[in-house]
Amino acid sequence: MKTLISQAELETGITSMSADINKQLGSTPLTVICVLTGSIILVADLIRHLEMPLRLGALSASSYKGNTDRSELTLDTHLLPKLKGQHVLIVDDIFDTGHTLNEVIKHIQTLQPAAVYTAVLLQKNGRQEIELDIDFVAFEIPDEFVVGYGLDYQDLYRNLPYVAVLEEHEIRQATDASA
Ligand code: IMP
Ligand code: MG
Question: So what's the architecture of 7-143 in CATH?
């Protein structure tokens, strides 16, 4: 495993992203939506830098690869607070192809919020399949599979305090171990 973004770099990037959010969104009350499970660590760190009156909610997005190449996304929205008329900031761990955030945004829009903003820790270069501009991005990364700071491989590694690239043989080992 090789470190891609160190603990100190994460702190700097998240502080800088929260300064942008404070500056652009001002003192309007904000409802932050944590997209579980990957963004749980980011949200915990991010919201402690935000200065507006803030409510916190969550939804869960998980994708399962069945027999097809396209994975199917399941949203569990029962933890969402009332969003009608609210300014909402959706926070996710990574923008990869964009399908997850696109579906999450579509669902949130049906709840009639006043405004919807998006923030991600990572945006993977060269992978985007959905036309979508993320409002706040902490780091752009190359097209490699990363873990740590909330991001998982087969539900492991979320607890690493840094972001690391998982190498081929580690992916194989983990696959063998779970077989
Ligand atoms: P999407 O392709 O933008 O829909 O991203 C789908 C989901 O795949 C993300 O929310 C992550 O949970 C996961 N994902 C994508 N790339 C990575 C990665 O490099 N490491 C860990 N999870 C990833
Ligand atoms: Mg995941």
Answer: 3-Layer(aba) Sandwich (3.40)
* Res 173: pLDDT: 73
Whether 69 is catalytic: no
Which ligand has an atom closest to residue 73 CA?
Answer: 1
Choose, from 45, 69, 76, 96, the residue flagged as catalytic.
96
Which of 66-70, 123-127, 137-141 is the least confident region?
66-70
- If pLDDT is split at 50, 70 and 90, which confidence band does 147 have? very high
Claim: this prediction has a pTM higher than 0.85 = yes
Ligand closest to 147 (CA) is 1
CA of 114 to the centre of ligand 2 (A): 29
To test the ligand 1 pocket, which listed residue (59, 70, 94) has its Cβ within 8 A of the most ligand atoms?
94
- As a three-state string, the secondary structure of the chain is CEEEECHHHHHHHHHHHHHHHHHHHCCCCEEEEEEECCCHHHHHHHHCCCCCCEEEEEEEEEEECCCCCCCEEEEECCCCCCCCCCEEEEEEEEECCCHHHHHHHHHHHHCCCCEEEEEEEEEECCCCCCCCCCCEEEEEECCCCEEECCECECCECCCCCCEEECCHHHHHHHHHHHC
